[in-house]
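Quick one, T. Sequence first:
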Amino acid sequence: MYDPEIPADIYELGLIYKIDVDDARNIAVEMTLTSPGCPVAGEMPTWVENAVASVPGVGQVTRRSSPSTRPGTRTACPTRPSWRSAC
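C-alpha cells:
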C-alpha cells in the first residue's frame, strides 16, 4: 500500500510498526502516519484494514494507531527513504 503524498510503500517508510497473527488468523496491525497533520489520517487506517482483510484466509483485522514517533526513532518518515527492490 502506498502513501498518496509520498508515492512510496508505507511498510518501507516504516509506518507499519508491528503485525501480529493469532492461531485463528486474526490480524492486529500497529501503525502510524507520516505526521500528526497527515491529510489522509481519516482514510489511510481504513485502507490498511481493508487491504489486509482482502487477503484470502484472514480472519478479523484490528488496527492500533501509534504516535508518529517511537522511542529510539527519529521520525516515522525518514528524510531519505531507502528504496529497496523486492527482488
